[in-house]
Amino acid sequence: MLNSQLLKIAENFGSPVYVYDAEKIAFQYKRLTDAFIEVKHLKINYAVKALSNISVLKYFNILGAGIDTVSIQEVQLGLAAGFLPEQIIFTPNGVSLSEIEEATKLGVQINIDNLSILEQFGTKHPHIPVCIRINPHVMAGGNSNISVGHIDSKFGISIHQIPHLLRIIENTKMNINGIHMHTGSDILDIDVFLYASEILFETAKQFKNLEFIDFGSGFKVPYKIGDIETNIEELGKKLSEKFNSFCKEYGKDLTLAFEPGKFLVSEAGYFLTHVNAVKQTTSTVFAQVDSGFNHLIRPMLYGSHHDIINISNPKGRERFYTVVGYICETDTFGNNRRINEINEGDVLCFKNAGAYCFSMSSNYNSRYRPAEILWHNKKAHLIRQRETFDDILKNQVEIDFKSKEDKVLVG
């Protein structure tokens, strides 16, 4: 998107505000499907947790995607957005059997990653098809918090537990129609991914009624100029060859599935803030903006990098700034960044703000969560209103302390 378009949005809708470029989302979706064009049956299930606005989900439905969900609420969102149950896979972690059964009643594909839950479910519902999430014990991902396929991870059923898994299937006579893995996010080395795929293929041979193999996602996107990203085209070529070879050996054309979130929406997102104040200290120049980690927590949580540019003064002299928020706690977006000269009132744009940004926002410090805008067909569409004070109070229940009986006794 152009700086002028973003500035107009900040002017019309206020700040802070999230903006998503639908054209970039469509470009990334096509890029991924083109990379695996040699596969006969391909299914892209967008990971709802990355960005769950219902208008964004409806847009993915138009593009032809399915969705990957991790909670019953995300399942319900998908259905509300117009997805058919068969277009939805439910891959929770650590949820109760009752939540899985609730999703089953809605008709979606179930994906289970716990032997205990699998046995309970198979005993009660042996005829309902189930996908199994395998932990391949492969360390992948850009941060320990987002590496989920290693041996100490809470996710998936260990490949070393396959004999136990097969016993459960034999005893319950349940139908396993899919096998799944997800090693982590920000995977850079495609050889690590391909190595994990070999483990999954070997495991898949032990299941005779498979309909699909799901490789999760975790593809790395560039976070700054010159940054390295997953070579999705090379991965597509190499993994397609391996997958087609496996299908030939298996004797059946299976569906190859992926569950990308960040890859599809990260680069499409922009977060716009106004500069409240420029503060010079003895060692640092702070640019203090009208937001905080209540709106974008990733830099504080993961140490993630978001390029920050001054779209109000893109040709100004570059200086070094530490960009911080207004939360009453250490709240740093970027330390010692080289940015075009910043003045109070300028609009700063945070890039790569489409994935795990608004979806992880909160009302910390009793601040309102921001509006969301979808830029589609050269027009800004409001897809979430900015919260108001009524939203802060909405679910709170006030107690009437007027009577003597309700007074709090002190001392």
Commentary on this structure:
The protein contains 12 helices and 18 strands. It has 2 domains: 22-265, TIM Barrel; 269-385, Lyase, Ornithine Decarboxylase, Chain A, domain 1. The chain has helices spanning 3-13, 22-35, 54-63, 72-80, 97-105, 115-124, 162-172, 190-204, 232-250, 262-265, 298-302, 389-393; strands at residues 17-21, 42-47, 66-69, 88-90, 109-112, 130-135, 157-158, 176-180, 212-214, 255-258, 269-280, 285-289, 308-310, 318-324, 332-340, 347-350, 371-376, 379-384. The chain is 30% helix and 23% strand. Strands 1, 11, 12, 13, 14, 15, 16, 17 and 18 form a 9-stranded mixed sheet that branches. Strands 2-3-4-5-6-8-9-10 form an 8-stranded parallel barrel, surrounded by 4 helices. It is an alpha/beta fold.
